[in-house]
TrEMBL record:
Catalytic activity: glycerol + ATP = sn-glycerol 3-phosphate + ADP + H(+)
The organism's taxonomic lineage, starting at the top: Bacteria, Pseudomonadati, Pseudomonadota, Alphaproteobacteria, Rhodobacterales
Binding positions (glycerol): R81, E82, Y133, D242, Q243
Binding site for ADP: T11, R15, T264, G307, G410
Binding site for sn-glycerol 3-phosphate: T11, R81, E82, Y133, D242
PANTHER family membership: GLYCEROL KINASE (PTHR10196:SF78), SUGAR KINASE (PTHR10196)
Family: Belongs to the FGGY kinase family.
SUPFAM superfamilies attached to this UniProt entry: Actin-like ATPase domain
GO terms, biological process: glycerol catabolic process; glycerol-3-phosphate metabolic process
GO cellular component assignments: cytosol
Keywords for the protein's UniProt record, in alphabetical order: ATP-binding, Glycerol metabolism, Kinase, Nucleotide-binding, Transferase
Keyword match Transferase: yes
Name the record gives this protein: Glycerol kinase
Amino acid sequence: MSYVLAIDQGTTSTRSILFDGEMTPVARAQEEFPQHFPQSGWVEHDPIDLWTTTVATCRTAIEQAGISPSQVAAIGITNQRETVIVWDRITGAPIHNAIVWQDRRTADQCRALRDSGHEQMITDRTGLLVDPYFSGTKLRWILDHVDGARERATNGDLLFGTVDSYLIWNLTGGAVHATDATNAARTMLYDIRKGGWSSTICKLLDIPMQMLPDVKDCAADFGRARSDILGAEIPIFGVAGDQQAATLGQACFKPGMLKSTYGTGCFALLNTGETPVVSKNRLLTTIAYQLGGNPTYALEGSIFVAGAAVQWLRDGLQIIDDAAQTQALAEAADPHQDVILVPAFVGFGAPYWNPDSRGAAFGLTRATGPAEMAKAALESVGYQTRDLLDAMSADWQATGVQSTLRVDGGMSASNWAMQFLSDIIAAPVDRPVIQETTALGVAWLAGMYAGLYPDQDEFAASWVRETQFTPTMDPNLRAAKYESWQKAVQATLSF
Ligand SMILES: Nc1ncnc2c1ncn2[C@@H]1O[C@H](COP(=O)(O)OP(=O)(O)O)[C@@H](O)[C@H]1O
Ligand SMILES: O=P(O)(O)OC[C@H](O)CO
């Protein structure tokens, strides 16, 4: 029997999941790693942690399954996107911690780019807005702040990559410096229409192009993981950013289909087909996947804090020990208290895009306690999703957005949060049987390229729903609650 190993390198943990020849997950290993917050709004990872947790979880998953490494036909890599790593071409040593997608340190740099009138040019090429979220200004920050970095990069001694590139480089023993089109599309340096790095933007940001990786399809030959790492030489045949991999795992292959993933943040992607759609409502245009040289585009709404609000209840407020406790708390909350949490802990993403805002809570009384705060945290995720879906519907009126939302990610395990989501968006919410959708998506890419897994149509037909949540909230209550949320957002933005 042959297997496919999916590596899901996420924001808070690394997971490796082994799928058998029938695309069923048979073994799974997960390791968390430290988050570093050197200053307010800064978020870093040690790249070595990302590498060691990758190797350790891969080895554990193979061991757990009791198979020989030589039975792994292919590796797929999916990853937290936008996060920037720069490393030495010879030694492989990173020259700085990874600057994580949530990091806001380049807010001033972005403001200067907007003030000097460059945003339209950048949006036209990349489909993105000028925001610290994306890789470009983070890469520039490293080149500006690490002694001698720009000179070394110009000499060809340093390499840049998102996390996928860094893992490919290390797995192949420095033989391959590559990424895929979905990860490239998040750098703010890649022309999503022409399908290549933008020399105009690289020049504007003073980024030497020789440090950029080769860009390939999502299902392609990304080299071989060395045998001394995993016990056998294993080809890497699939790569995609984690939100795009989830779009694949949810089989959103048809224009109008959409999914929303609830991990640290929340990311909704709407398949818009072969033509990029320009948003009038501050959503992003991005590449959903690229197969056979042909990109399929998506509209994306990105929210920075979803499950992270639950983590804050656990680690910041310390009112829960475990994320799952929010269910019982939300059920026990006083229904007469209308507490609204605006979790703009690292500013606002779509559709407001304000890196300087910070979180706020409204409607607090002396009676407000852990239950009401937990309920407000879960509700905030539903409200934010409604903001995105309203923007998508306005942008995509011609074809129409499918009314059912497919959900996945750690927080989609919360029945309370998913029911509220369905209530506030007034649409059915479908949770699939395989909730490791991100890993499944990239496993499918790698397995399909290896000739082990079926084509797109057969794969789409294998998608199975576990639970459907349907709206039960009174329409007047829905309208009143959403209006309060919108007021709370406006107040937070203007604070
Ligand atoms: N039962 C639950 N209820 C609410 N939130 C949950 C639950 N289980 C997990 N989460 C949240 O989901 C997030 C983890 O999801 P995951 O998909 O692993 O994220 P990531 O890939 O960003 O690391 C955490 O922020 C956690 O707080
Ligand atoms: O690691 P996740 O699952 O929170 O995903 C992070 C996103 O890719 C950031 O754009």
